[in-house]
Each structure stands twice: as C-alpha cells, then as structure tokens.
Fold these 2 entries.
Entry 1:
Amino acid sequence: MACKKLGSLSNAMWQRSSSCTVSLCAGLNIPAFACGSFASAGSTMNGQNCCKDKHNCGPTKNLPVNHNPVAAAVTSHRHQIVGKNRGEESLAKSGRAFSSTAPQINNKTYLWARYNEMKRLVHDLIPPGVCNLLNPSTIYANNEVNLEEVDIYGFDYDYTLALYSSALDEMIYNKAREFLVQHYKYPEGIGKYDYIPNFATRGLHYDIQKGLLMKIDAFHYIQLGTVYRGLKPVPDDEVMKLYGGSNHVPLHQVSGFYGKGPKMKQFMDVFSIPEMTLLAAANDYFISNDIEYDPVHLYKDVSDAIGMVHIKGYMYKWIMQDLEKYILRGDETYAVLHRLASHGKKLFLITNSPFSFVDKGMKYMVGKEWRDFFDVVIVQADKPHFFNDCVKPFRRLDSNGDLQWDRIKSLNKGQIYKQGNLVDFLKLTGWRGSKVFYFGDHLYSDLAVSDRHASVLFTFVAQTQLTYLRLGFQMHRDPESKKVLQEWLKEREELRAVTKNLFNPHFGSIFRTCHNPTYFSRRLCRFSDLYMASISCLLNYDLSYTFYPRRTPLQHEAPLWMDQLCTGCMKTPFLEEMAHIR
C-alpha cells in the first residue's frame, strides 16, 4: 500500500493538485573493518590512526583472538611502506610484494584469508533470531512525513480497506479462461490449463509483440533469467538476440505514465496476477502445439476477457455471496477507521467499485453505520481517469443507488457520489497540501512474510560481500588468483538463485534485480511517500509520529560503501597511484 502527499504529485497521479499517497505493500549495525583489520601488531590494534592521512579507519575489536597471523601480516604491509622508493611502494600496493617484516605467501592463500574473514563478518551480521528484529508491520518512508500535520486520510476500497484471499485470483482466472474459449473462440485445449498460484508476481512487464513476460530494472534493463515465453524460460542468449544484442529496452517503449508504452505493458495492480497467468498459459498452448498465432491479438483478447469478469459483475457477485471466504482481516479495517475518526481526522473514500458492492463489504467489516466514519464517499470513480480527466462531473446517488440530475456544488457527509475528477474534488473540499494522505492498493507480499526474512537477509549480505571481494581484488591476475575469483563468482550466482527462489522461483523479488531496484520499485519511490503491507500498520504508530527516509550512499560516496570498509581503506584500483596528480 502506498501513501502520497497530494501536493507533491505534480507529475504523478494527483497531477498538480495538493495532498499524500501511501503504498500498502531497522537498519542493522554493520561493524566496519579497520584499514588494518587483519594486522596483528602496531597502532591498528588500538584503532588509532592506521591510514597514511592519520585518520582512524575503524575499530578492530571484532577480530577473533585466534585470527590468521599470516593474513594479518599481509594486510598490514600497506602501513609499512613509508621511506621506500616509489617502485617498492607500487609493488607493495599491488599485493604482489610484501614488506621485509611479513612472511611471504602466495595470492591464493591471501585471497582465501580475506574470504574467510568476510564469511565471519556475514555470520556476525546475521545472528540467530535476527528475523525477530524485522517487523512486517513496519511503515517505510521515501520522504519525510509528519503524521501530526495530516488531518485528512483518503482510502481506496479494493485491496486497501478490503483485503481479498488468493482464492479470488483463481476464480478470476477460471472465468476469464472460460470467456476466452467460449466468447473469443480460442482452442478448447487452453481450458485444460489450471491456475498456477505462484507463477506471476506484480510489477512485471509484458512485451505485447513478442509475447514475453519479464522483469525490468529501474534503468530499463531486462533481468536475464526472468524472461518467460508461455510457461518456459527463454535462454539468455536468445533474449539478447531478440533485443538486438542488448538486454536494454528503449525508454519510449516503456515510458507511458501508467507503465504502458507502444510495445510494453507493466502489470502494476494485484488484479493483474490472474491476467499474467492466463497470458502465459495461452502462449504456452500455442507454442507447445506449434500453432501460429498473433501475440498482439492474444494480449488484447486476454485483457478484454479479464475486463469482462469485472464489467459483468462476476467478481462482485462471488465476494458478496461469501464475504467470509474472500474478505480478510476486516476487524483491522474497523480498528484503523475508528482510531483515525476518534482523533478528529476527516476520512474520504474513492473507489472504482459500485456502491452496492462497497456497502455490503463495509457493513461486514465495519458495521451498518460505516458511512458515519467518512466525510466524502465516491464510487465508480473511473480511476485512473479520475486523476487526469477534468471532463466528468460528480453525480449524486439517492438511497436506492439511482443517479440524480442536480448540480453538485459541495461534497457533503452522508451522501454518495459517482464519477467526478480530482480538480473538482479539490475545489469542492478545499483539501490540499501535506495535510491530506491517500492510501492506494499497493500490497507488497515481500514485506508480509517474516519467517523468510532471515534467509533473505543472509543471502543478500553474502552476495554483497562476494561482490565487494571481487571488486577489491580483481587486479590479482595470476592463474591461481583468477581461479579463486571465478569460484567466488560461481558462489555469488548460486546465492542469487537461492535469493530469487525465496521470493518467486520464476521472477524473484518485485523490489530488486541482481544489482538494481526494479522498475516497479522505482515507481514506488517516485509516487509514494510511505509504503507498508496494509493499512493496519498505522495501528503501530502514534498519530504524531514523524517518518524519516534512511539515507543511502550514492556511488561516488565511496568511503561509506562496504567494499572500502571490508577490503581495506580506499583500495580502489589505481586511486593511490593517482594521488600525485592532485
């Protein structure tokens, strides 16, 4: 779920308006290596001025008593080169020569000594029970937000106030598959493809012309290993050929505001998971049976079939007939609304769903008097057009749900309104700026499963440390060192596969690719000030709480990165050799 200040959405959904949106979807104390963290003697053992510039590079108190003295001597040579001629100093810094006081060992022994110490660090970072420190009810901040300034809270309905069970996805898939076969006359063989619950995940892109489902990062690069044609992965070399020798997708193909360019469609909402699965199943049928077809026609027909499930009211009927089966955690919705209202906050609801459906669900979750909580209720708003189309005016519904013809001059409590647009909403309510928050349907399953957090964190940190090791020691080019570096690379790839499977075996986490945030993650940061697993996370915070985003170092802020702290102070290749240029 995401929350955004309306006033900060000049280029987002609340375009040039004024308010905050929230997306529903504790830093670890990382001990830093000292510059001479392996040294067994000298001033570095006291954490005092180990670098040539007399700065303290970090404590060494984390060293085990029985640390490797050979590795220690190798590392400490960097601080014993004063007084040597420039040639000797250059050799020492390259890692190929050692001071006269240190025993000479080969590079292979040196590299594995550093590797073992990094392994120890990873285990120290991820102690037993660390998953207890990672709370899935945490609210995460992209911007600084002071809840004390927020007077007005707005909500979507589906997947925000009302959370649905996974059984709904299968029902949508089955009915759309039925439409595809009976209405659009697709082969009956497609009807034999059952729903696969964990195949797709939110945020994926679909190449409409090629019929490929994939994950793309924030810089428009396809993550190799996550490209599927039907239900089968596409080999990396074939992906490269399909995209002209590169895994980069041009900006204009994916740059639409809502994630759709002329050739790519991004599936952002929760309802899209059955659609992606049906696309994959239909593609797989044609490919497996060697039947020629047009992927563009298939994409449109599947999209229309999914739309018919909603337009014809099937989804609404299923839920209303068995509220207990499909609606989850309704008591939490009541608790959130009651708390906000009891603190004098104004509430509003904007949803695409019809009033009869919303009314029945809210009565089930909140009670018959649920409308008393809300100052404004808007149904069938036709989002996203509500946010950027100023043509449709608001219309009032009577107690029977029939449209009224009177002109709307104000939005009043106790009334139900239909359609409308953001410009009129702001004008009629006078609500704008940082005092308004709007919660949308961005539920992030990655945040809601606490029992796998420790495994994910461990493998992620281990991958990162292996990357830093390769970065710091890639200039070792003798045969034995190259063999060690290749072993590290192989281990990193294995850890990446483990991490991917912990989230989704086909596409991995919706937030990250191997190196970068995903395109989905980028849009989350761009359009939301806060994100969380569900609105119930608000119950864990005081309504005067201030959220602060965590500062993360940029690439050029090198001393703050672990490769500098773990492989030696400022050991960027050639950096010290270039110092005389200053």
Note: DSSP finds 18 helices and 19 strands in the chain.
Entry 2:
Amino acid sequence: MKKVLYHLPFTLLSLPKSPSSNVSTIRLTSTVAIHLDIKRCNLVIARLCQNGKIVHARKVFDEILERDSGLWTTMISGYLKCGMIREARKLFDRLDAKKNVVTWTAMVNGYIRHNQIKEAERLFYEMPLRNVVSWNTMIDGYARNGLTQQALDLFRRMPERNVVSWNTIITTLVQCGRVDDAQRLFDQMKERDVVSWTTMVAGFSKNGRVEDARALFDRMPDRNVVSWNAMITGYAQNGRLDEALDLFQRMPERNMPSWNTMITGFIQNGELNRAEELFCVMRVKNVITWTAMMTGYVQHGLSEEALKVFNKMLAADGLKPNTGTFVTVLGACSDLAGLTEGQQIHQIISKTNFQDSTCVVSALINMYSKCGELRIARKMFDDGLLRQRDLISWNGMIAAYAHHGYSKEAINLFKEMQELGVPANDVTFVGLLTACSHTGLVEEGLKYFDEILKNKSIELREDHCACLIDLCGRAGRLKEAFNIIEGLGEEASLTVWGALLAGCNVHGNADIGKLVAEKILKIDPQNAGTYSLLSNMYASAGKWKEAANVRMKMKDKGLKKQPGCSWIEVGNSVQVFVVGDKSHSQYKLLGHLLDDLHTKMKKARETPEDDLLVNVEL
C-alpha cells in the first residue's frame, strides 16, 4: 500500500507498527512545547478542511496521539462546514472525545445551520456548561427559524449578556415587525455599539417610521458606512428620494452598496432617468449595479436597452452575471420575443453553474414559450427541472400553454401538479382561467373560479376577475359578466371593466358597451381607448350619429388613441409595423399578402372541419 506523506510545519516521527495492530501512528516531536505542536496541527487540519480535503484532515487527526479539545473542535467544525453533520456527530459522541464549551457550541451551531432547530435545542439543554456565546448561538437559531418568542424567552433567561446578545434579539424583533419591543430593549441597553444603533435605524425605516429613524440617526455617537446606507435605504423605500440623495451626497465615504441603494431606490420609485445619471457617473460597478439598471429598463418597457446594458456588462473586465442578471435579461428577451438573443444567453448560461438554478430554468421556459417555442419550453420543464420543479416552474409552463391557446395541455398539467401534491396559488389559477378564456371553456373556467372562492389560502385577485369577465365576454355571455362585475361593487377596477368592453366590441353589443364605457370613464375620464372602442361599436351597429358624437367628444378633450404596434424578427433585422403607417419599403407587397391571407381565412371559416383536415394532410 502506498504511504501518504503529510508535509507539516514541524517534525512528525513515524513509529513502527505494533505487532498487534495494522495501524501506524504518528507522535509529535519538537524542540518547542507540545502545546505549540498541537496548535500547528490545528492549523493544518483547519486548512485542509477549508480546502475541502476533509478525508486528509481526518487522517492527520487520527494519526495524532495527543489531542486536546481544540483539535476535536477543529475536526468537528470541519465536518460541519463541509455539510457532513452525521460524521460530525459521530466524532462528537465518541467516548474518548475531549469537548469543552466551544465544541458543544460548534455542534449546536452546526444543527442550526442545517435547519435542525429541534436537535440544536436538545443539545443546547444537554450542555454541561454554557457561556454567553452558547446562549447567543441558540437565540440566533430561534431567530433564523422564525421562532421570535422562543428567542425572546431565552434572552430573558440569560445569566449574563453582552452587546451581541442585545443586538441579536433587537434584530430579531425588528425583522418580524415588533419595533416597539425592540425599542424598549434598545433603551434598556447600558452599552451600545454602532450595530445596535444601525439596527434600530433600519427597523424604524423598514416599518415606515422614517422620522423616528432620522431622529435616532442624528443621535448616533458614531456612524459607519452601513449606518448611512441604512438611513438612505429608509428614505428610498418610503419614496423620499430627495432626502435620500441629499444624505448620499453628504456621506463622508461611500461604498458599492451606497451607490446601489440610491440607484435601486430611484428605479423602484419610477425615476429611471435619475438612476441613469447616477449609473453613468459610477466609476466602479458590480453585477448588482448592472442588474439593477437592466431591471429598471425592463420595468419601463425598454427591454432593448436592458439587452444593451447586459452586453456592456459582459464586456466589463471580471464581471460575471448572477441569477438575478440572467432572470432579468431573459425577461427582456421574452418581452421582445427575441428568440435569437434568448438562445445566445442560453448558451452563456449552459457554461455556468446557473444552468441548474430553478429560477434561471423557469426564466428560460418563459422566454422560449413567449417566443413561440413551446416544444423547447416543455422539454426544459421535463428535463431541466426533473429534480426540482417548484411552483414558479409549474405556473410558468401552465401560463405558456394558456398564452398559446393550448387549454387542454394547461389543464392536464394542472392535474399532474395536483397528483404530485404541489399546492396551487393565485398565479396558477390566473393561468388556468386564461387558458379557459382563450378557448371558450366557460364551464371549466367557472369551476376554477369557484375553487378560488372556496380555497381560503388563495386570495381573490383583480386578475382572476378580469380573466373571468374575459371568459364570459368571449363566449358572448355579456349580461352575466356585467352582473358579476356589479356584484364586486367598488372593487371592480378599470382592468375588469376593460375586459368586458372588449367582449362587447367583439360581439357588437353597443347597449351593454355604452354602460360599460360609462363605468370606465368614471374611473379614467381620459381613456382614449374606451372612446375609440365605443365609437367602433356604434359604427358596427349602424349607429353612425352616436359614433360621430363619441369621436367629437374625443376631439374636444384632445384625446388621441395610441396606434397599435407590432414587430417581427427576420434574419438579424427587426421589422416594425404601426397602424396607418405606409412608410415600410414593402408596404404594397405586404398589403397584397394580407388580402390573400384574409381571403383564405374566410374560406376556411366556411369549410367543414373534415375538409380542412384533408387539406392539411395533402
């Protein structure tokens, strides 16, 4: 057998094998004290564990005869850091194990990190001796698992506390919204550090108490960059951007989070231009900065700009996209139906670890489905998410089928999801109702709407009502849809009434359309689209005088409907078409093509389905 040599920074004397044993041992010899040798051994084991060489670390550990509690703690901690909690516990439970309070605390912390809070709690109460770190560790464990009251009870039972104890429990209370309780404890503190003050500033800000946060910020004896960032974040989150910017400009020093906080604040409050200005003057940007700008552009419907920013980021030295970057830029491709760009980004993803990310794969599924590539989207859903399909993935695939009118596939996928025990949420039912609406499955749609009303865990959303009205509207059940909206009372929104108005337009029902239009114009008097639809309905019904009156009202109010726009990618060129625009170089040819298609569609409508199938086969 080949002998493994460990090059340690001191002398190791290999002893001959004992006649009764096949194990060779190593004894420490050095001109320095034994405790120094053990300390160096400790460093070697720690370094091996840190580098993931846990097997080598254990061999070194086993070959050392004189082991103190520090060595045992290091080896146990090494296992825990490598996620090997069972091996750590086996070593911890050995009869010859030398354990002190640090060893016990490390094991408790290991269980907490692996989300085994009950085991951590059991071990904590078995500890023969606890110090303040042990208590702090257990309190933090409760906090991480959302057990705020248990954390507070344990804090109150502590025999002694340090500033970390106070900061841990104050942070816990702040995070669950118990700001007043946190403030009471903060006021009781005899000794506070910058973390204590900053935690309270952030807590007040997060809960909308910006004035209290600023008063506390002004009282701080010492501030660091995190304190300033917390106050700026508070202003930004509460829409007070001028005050946030003023504080940002007064900062004695700024770090990357300072800049990112301001840029994100502007974007979240719809101030894209101001975010751009700040972005442009930043000398150094990280992936969060670039992703924030991409998100801003996508949210403002400027997906092309988002793609340009992505390309610029790739050109920047040393910057690599993260999960958020890929999800955002794929969203931009989805909005543009940019299949070529999406495929290029997919190639980049395939060379990274993010190809296994559920969020990224879900974004890819969404991109392919929005670009009309349902086959690829379904293949990714089946293969790419075989091990970890989450609710987002299921909802995305159901929505994809719904968007393209494949209602049976959407419903079958929902049934499969139910059989596997995946609970549906509000988004799932939006997809199902949309699927039913696009293919006229009225009864199925009403059944799913009834399920929403019966399911206490799902909150009825405006989207659900809009889908239901759209479903009834497409099926010509306009009076029924009108009564449903009337039953909603003040909760009926512009979106819901708009869905019914579209149905009235399709079926040429000007009488109900007029009532619906009146409802919409009460909510939004400047809605040009409503006037335009109502005028078209009157014209379709031969009511030319009423149609002219509506058009005259539009003119008097100075309203003009935004022309419809569509585009298609041919080769590497994007062709844009706007209603009424005759500037396209192939306008006449396209006109003849559309006339030809229109004629064929009319013929198809008059042709029996059996004949159509024969024609397709031919």
Note: Confidence is low (pLDDT under 50) at residues 1-35, 609-618.
